[in-house]
Amino acid sequence: MRAGIVIKVTRADRHRLEAIVSDRSAPQKHVWRANIILATADGCGTAEIMRRSGKSKPVVWRWQARFMADGVVGLTRDKTRKPGKPPLPTGTVQRVVDLALGPAPGETTHWTGRMLAKAAGVSLRSVQRILEAHQLAPHRIRTFKLSNDPKFAEKLKDVVGLYVDPPAHAVVLSVDEKSQIQTLDRTQPGLPMKPGRAGTMTHDYKRHGTTTLFAALNILDGTVIGRNMQRHRHQEFIRFLNTIEEQVPAGKVIHAIIDNYATHKHPKVRQWLARHSRWTFHFTPTSASWLNAVEGFFAKLTRRRLKRGVFRSVVELQVAINRFVADTNANPKPFVWTADPKRVLAAVKRGKQALESLH
Hints:
This protein is α/β, with parallel strands linked by helices and 359 residues long.
């Protein structure tokens, strides 16, 4: 034991120390401190106490001295330490916030953390903490598009009404096309994922043509009718409508939700629609493709099959798409609309008001 350290453990102190060690809810730092004192009271030397506790010699001496000065209470109370650097002045914090909310200097489009740190005369970490505390992210941007359709509310309620309360003895289909799907082949084979390394694929590729997927999502049961074609003109759209006509049972009224793509409003498409009385087109508002449920299927197709896929020919790509459609139809999930139309209309109104006030 270090010179000048004399440990006297009374019977009451030993009971309290043993109670700390046996308490399963006691903090571990209190447990090993109590064990150091108990081992000291048993006559163990510093080396033996270090071996038992797994602590260094200065740590053992520190808590022996703490017990000698303050008793058992001193083992369960940590000393407060002086704060490090003083917090940034309020004016400096406000300057960083004002700079981040204002225009970026020179020809840059946005502030970076290092630019803010240099302009405000503080460290990069200080800028990061200030931005995080004020929920500011100059490096990020979100895209948006507000519909200018004068009949937005009317069309929204019409489409959502079909989702929420579809007509009896009818089929509700969300119809659209995913055009220009590229047949991409990688220039070199990638490596599979393994512990510590993500899977790899080359950034460059070879193009082998494109295809267009016409799809109709059945809102009621979640199945998809799909057909690949080389182009996406009105001729192909009419052929796809004929495909749907063949697959939907006779006697069922068909409500088709489609967007405002010019192909869908072509005169020959309107003539086809006039010849098929059980069909009704419901157009989504302009610039509101998110309202078309089949877009969710297209997004899933892109994420799960196309983005990492390797295809050496258009036929190979089309076969892969057809297999994905078949897998979807093997385990379909009905489409469920959950957003309140009133909240959607209120959000659009707020967006327009914000744009008008700023511009």
